[in-house]
Amino acid sequence: MNLILQSTQAIDLPILQQVAKAACATGVEQPSEFAYRFTGVDKYQKPAVDEICAQLPIDYVFAPAMSLDEFGLVAMDMDSTLITIECIDEIADMNGLKEQVSAITERSMAGELDFSSSLRERVALLAGLDESVLATIYEERLQLQPGAREMLAAVHEQGIKTLLISGGFTYFTRRLQAELGLTWTIANELEIIDGKLTGNVLGDIIDANAKAHHLMRLADDLGLNKEQTIAFGDGANDKAMFEAAGFSVAFRGKKVLKAVASAAFDHVGLDGILNIFPASK
C-alpha cells in the first residue's frame, strides 16, 4: 500500500515528515515536483493522515502499489470532468436560460434529482435553437481540464483503452474522440430536425446504471477484472460507475460522489493519476 500526497505548490518538509511518521511509511519517492509517494504505509493510519492534511491544499490517497500498465480500461465522464464546462448549461445560455438550467444541473449532480427526468426537462428548454450553437460551444467555450492531455497520452502509451461515457451529448463526445484518440464514446443523442433542436433526446438516457453497465461490459470484453479499471467523474450520475470500477477519482467532485471514490482531486489535474500509478519505463 502506498500513500500519495500531491499539490499544485510545494509541500512543506515538516508536513511530509509528520505524514511519514503518522502513516508508518518505510520509504518515500518523489514522482513529480509537487508529489510524494510514501511506500509501505499502514492504511489503518488514515485518520491520523486526515488530521494532518484535511485543511491543507493537498490531495492525498491510500492506493495499492500498482503501475499504470497493470490497468486495461480508463472510463471517464465528460462534463466538468474531462472538460471544464457543462455543455447543456452553455447551450441553454444561447437561449437565455443558463441560470435556470444550471440550477437543475447542479441539483442533479448533487443527487437531489433523478438524472433521466431532469435531463429531459433541461433538454426540452432548448427546443428551437439552431444546431449551429453546438459548434460555437465546441469551438469557443469547451476546454479540457488541466492535465487531461497528459493523462490520456500516458494511458494510451501503456496500451490502455479509454471510454468517454457521458450523460451529455454525442455531438461533443464524438469530436473529443477524434481530437484525443479515445477508444470509445457513449452519450445521449439530441434530436435535430431541419437544423433545429427539437427539445427531445433520442433513445434511452445514459444514466448512472448505463455508465456502470458499459464499464463492466467493456471490461468483460477485454478480459479485465474489476481491479484493472479506473473511473473518473464528478457527480451523482457517476456513483454506480465508481462502484463498478477498481479505482475511482472524484474530480472536483460532489459530496455524494466523494463518499464512494477511491480518491478525490480537489487541487491537482487529471494527470495526478500518474503520481498514484506510475507509467512503466
UniProtKB/TrEMBL annotation:
InterPro entries: HAD-like_SerB, HAD-like_sf, HAD_sf, PSP. It comes from the Bacteria. It catalyses: O-phospho-D-serine + H2O = D-serine + phosphate; O-phospho-L-serine + H2O = L-serine + phosphate. GO terms for molecular function: hydrolase activity. Belongs to the HAD-like hydrolase superfamily. SerB family. This is Phosphoserine phosphatase. NCBIfam families: HAD-SF-IB, serB. Pathway: Amino-acid biosynthesis; L-serine biosynthesis; L-serine from 3-phospho-D-glycerate: step 3/3. Its cofactor is Mg(2+). Pfam families: HAD (PF12710). Keywords: Amino-acid biosynthesis, Hydrolase, Magnesium, Metal-binding, Serine biosynthesis. The keyword Methyltransferase does not apply. It is an enzyme of class 3 (hydrolase). The keyword Amino-acid biosynthesis applies. Its EC number is 3.1.3.3.
